[in-house]
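Complex 256.
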Amino acid sequence: MNYTYTQRANLCTNPTAVKLLQLMDQKQTNLCIAADVISKNQLLKIADELGDEICILKTHIDILEDFDMDTVIQLDRLSEKHNFLLFEDRKFADIGNTVKHQYQDGIYHIADWAHITNAHTVPGPGIITGLKEVGLHKGRGLLLLAEMSSAGTLAKNEYTAETLEMAKNNKDFVIGFITMRQLIDDPCFINLTPGVQLAVGTDNLGQQYNTPEKVIKENNSDVIIVGRGIYEAQDPIAEAKKYRTAGWQAYLAKLS
Ligand code: S5P
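Predicted structure with 6-sulfanyluridine-5'-phosphate bound:
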């Protein structure tokens, strides 16, 4: 059975998962923008101009050439103004003790502003325990990379299966997956899928694209992650509206 995002919110306990599922239905959007730009002004412009179209703004905060703490103060204000969540796509991949520091310390202090972050499971479950020590009491949520969109990815078969087990054992903090499709029928795990454009295709570095319809309706994912398809368009706002509509129509079609 396909639950609405709101019905799923009522079944979950992690506050970030609840907030995300509720705001998707409230705003009628399952679009996450991957704002992979390298200047603070470009990033804040995207957040403000596209904020009403999205449920999540995904950052790679370490690609900014002029990062300062004001960047995340402004992002936080924009996330409240437009009602979206902040997802730092940090892809942690080290032992628990190291990722704890990477999550809370350094110059980015990710845990202090990012509602959501993500991790590879290659080190084993200690990576989740470490991140959880920092993020759980702040109400943050973690996504595990169960699959990747790139050609030749090693995240498949047994690796993916083990990742699902780690998620099931950490349901208080793990709110879902980066994945190409729904992998477990559990309403509290939210599936986010990158590699989305309006036409199927590839880039020249191994990225592989599927359409919003395929991702949401056929593959039963929940959130489309779109980067260059939007921010490299001539009119990013108009393009974001197209992706938002395509993603939302696919969700409605799946429900009916
Ligand atoms: O498997 C993955 C996981 C992620 S989070 N493949 C991805 O492409 N991503 C991220 O999604 C990637 O880091 C980038 O920020 C975004 C895709 O960007 P696009 O420009 O190809 O849409």
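The longest strand covers residues 85-92.
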